[in-house]
Design goal:
By secondary structure, this protein is α/β, with parallel strands linked by helices. Helix content is 44%, strand content 17%. It folds into 2 domains: 141 residues, Rossmann fold (3-Layer(aba) Sandwich); 111 residues, Rossmann fold (3-Layer(aba) Sandwich), CATH 3.40.50. α1 crosses α10 and α2 crosses α3. The chain binds D-glutamic acid.
Length: 264
């Protein structure tokens, strides 16, 4: 194993940075390539066929070009739709992102769990299966929140967060039968933990927010255990459209350890 061979993190936009932050805590020396399909953002409003085609095509190209030791689909929408397909095509380990329904079901006291994701994620049979396997006997209230994807993208570019979108997402959960009793909310989109503080503020301090980022990072760390790792160049962020060139965005990327930016 070449110590400079990177771990590839893939998302439609900046959401996967929530996973990268957890990965840095466990593997500070691991070379990373962060790839965002910014030309395809948002995935959540696309069809299954469009998402599957983009994700498997792009991961093929990225793997050829950057020769990662492992790829992570740091995006619930892409994972719940295309993970199986990508695993069939690539010969490296592929880590997916699973909505954290299981830990939420273990945490809830009221038995009522909220789930925020993209429209494409929340309609997946994959989510139905997680619900029946791990949350039987509980109530899972789902709500699509595409506005939060945009709000997270804006926040990371240094723009103010639109609290109307936060309020809309929370009202969408609370307004459904049983919604008042929600005590745990699954953030089933990697963009949403980037708005943790804002969501917590509107949901109130008694509601627990849960996402899969730390679990994904642990899974990656297990799969690369014992492998040599050493950065030979600064870590790279790759975008499928012209990258935002504002210094405020470069500063955010650098905060996540991404010091070089490229267009695919
Ligand atoms: N970050 C992605 C997810 O986890 C979705 C954002 C989008 O709609 O592209 O589902």
């Amino acid at each position: 194993m070449d110590p400079a061979s990177p771990v590839l993190l893939f998302d439609s936009g900046v959401g996967g940075l929530s996973v990268l932050a957890e990965l840095r805590k466990l593997l500070p020396d691991m070379p990373v390539i962060y790839a965002a399909d910014s030309a395809g953002l948002p995935y959540g409003t696309k069809t299954e066929a469009e998402i599957a085609a983009r994700v498997s095509g792009l991961l093929g190209v990225l793997s050829e070009r950057y020769r990662p030791r492992l790829a992570t689909i740091a995006c619930n929408t892409a994972s719940t739709i295309a993970l199986g397909m990508v695993r069939e095509v690539l010969r490296i380990p592929i880590v997916g992102t699973v909505p954290a329904i299981k830990p939420a079901a273990e945490m809830t006291k009221t038995g009522v769990i909220g789930l925020l994701g993209t429209a494409a994620t929340i309609r997946q049979r994959y989510v139905d299966n997680l619900e029946s396997e791990f949350a039987a006997g509980k109530r899972l209230i789902r709500f699509p929140a595409p506005g939060l994807v945009e709000a997270a993208e804006a926040k990371l570019r240094g723009d103010p967060v639109d609290y109307n979108e936060i309020g809309h997402a929370v009202a969408g959960l609370r307004g459904q039968p049983g919604g008042e009793d929600i005590d745990t909310v699954v953030l089933a989109c990697t963009h949403f933990p980037l708005l943790n503080d804002e969501l917590q503020e509107v949901l109130g301090p008694d509601v627990k927010l849960i996402d899969g980022a730390a679990g994904i990072a642990r899974r990656i760390a297990t799969l690369v255990e014992g492998q040599p790792m050493a950065r030979q160049a600064p870590d790279l962020a790759v975008f499928t459209s012209e990258p935002d060139s504002r210094p405020s965005f470069a500063k955010v990327l650098s905060h996540y350890g991404l010091e070089r930016v490229e267009r695919l």
